[in-house]
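Schema walk-through. Below, the input block comes first and the output block second. Nothing else is stored per chain. Lengths vary across the set, and this one has 212 residues.
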Amino acid sequence: MRKLILICFLVPLFFYSQEDFGTWTKISFDYKLNKKVSFVSKTELRTKDNSRTRNQFYTQLSARYKFNKKLSINLSYRLKTLKENYGEEIQNRFHSDINYRSKIEDLSIYFRLRTQYNITYNSDNALYERTRLKLKYQFNKKLSFFMYNEFYFLVNDTENNGFHKNRFGTGFEYKISKSISAGLKYLRISDVNVENPKTMNVIGLNFAHKLN
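--- output ---
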């Protein structure tokens, strides 16, 4: 198990491609209907070209059902606008998640399987399967550190085994109050098995507010 986790987080070091830099700024709101059902809304602005150009802006609505402390599922819809060379492109995205969590004292291990379907008007619709492993260490009641790695598999692609992208992330989360928290993270997103691959380095800042 330890070797598998180590390999998973070393994979991003072997990808070489053209580099870029951007920023992601996100705000989210969480409403808990009961012990099992909750709803989340997210809004995020992303930049590219060394943070000089808007890359995308989206709003997402999600519903989560919690079976127990370890297992939950999500259903989400995202409406986003992308800045392309030919102008603005509007995309609709649907995805579902299966989430599993295991905890060993102050260390939490998260495993997520995501099925994602992008609906676009200027290109083929894309169906992705995404697999993410995340580690989170709780220093105290307010501060935590996390690290994760995620693999993107394009189901539509039958020539390159589907593996198209890798996303590595690490950062800190800080609980400002019982209902408000903030996070700072670094992401390294690398294209794989594509012509002219690119790597996006991202600094992300997010704020989350629990409504109840």
